[in-house]
Design a protein that fits this description.
Low-confidence stretches: none
Largest sheet: none
Shape: globular
Number of strands: 0
Radius of gyration: 14 Å
Number of domains: 1
Number of helices: 5
Structural class: mainly alpha
Mean pLDDT: 94
Distance between the termini: 32 Å
């Protein structure tokens, strides 16, 4: 589905997106730092009235779902995170997998 065919977000979802996502941080860095925390993600199923928010959310969705040849989370972690931060994420991912 093309982005312009997506339904518009309701005001509550747009408010949630504004509160959840730090638009001052590139979506690539956010994905590197927090992508592992999203077990499901549907914010990119909607368009947003704020064009900057819409672009940011759509880019994050592209990264999380590996659309359009975007870099992998591992590539982005290598770019944005220290080795210690990467190690901590990997430990957290393993612990979460054990819980399931």
């Amino acid at each position: 589905m093309r982005i312009d065919e997506l339904p518009m977000s309701d005001p509550g979802r747009e408010k949630d997106a504004r509160e959840l996502f730090p638009l001052a941080m590139p979506p690539e860095e956010y994905a590197a730092r927090h992508g592992h925390e999203w077990l499901c993600f549907s914010f990119d199923d909607y368009r947003y009235s704020d064009a900057a928010l819409d672009r940011w959310v759509q880019r994050l969705g592209d990264i999380l779902f590996q659309r359009d040849g975007v870099p992998t989370l591992e590539d982005l972690r290598g770019r944005y995170l220290t080795e210690e931060e990467q190690r901590m994420i990997e430990e957290r991912r393993r612990a979460m997998a054990e819980d399931f």
